Amino acid sequence: MEVALREVREADLRVFFAQMNEPEGVRMAAFTAEDPSDSADFHARWTRIRQNPDVVVRTVTDGRGEIVGHASVFGPPEEREVTYWFGRQYWGRGVASAALRELLRLAPERPVFARAAADNLGSIRVLEKCGFVVSGHGRGFANARGEEVDEVLFALRR
Hints:
- This protein has five helices and seven strands; from the N terminus they run βαααβββαβαββ.
- It is α+β, with helices and mostly antiparallel strands.
- Strands 1-2-3-4 form a four-stranded antiparallel beta sheet, with helices on both faces. The protein has a three-stranded antiparallel beta sheet with strand order 5-7-6, covered by helices on one side.
């Protein structure tokens, strides 16, 4: 699927909020806000993200200009990390891989890191397709699941 990355617009946030509250997406992401349905918290977080010059965040659209999700790189230079979220209807269509490749072109600093819940096989595959390699394993509290879950840590060094 063809994707394009553009600056985030205020109107995009309503789509992101809906996507980030889709039950299966929340479960798969695992490491979410404590209460993803808290609109005030969501908007405050996105205000901070959009105002931070060290964060590269983009809205991802399809070939028709429809918003399919968002992707970003954040953190200090030695700890840069990628994150992304796509609407469930776009899973398995190559959207995440294409968007992450484009994002990595916009933010060429290396190394860059990522993490995924160990059972989020789709996200693990996306990271591997984009050149990330497993750099470790851990456990962390997953708000979306209300418990600690295994996670896979990744690094992209080239």
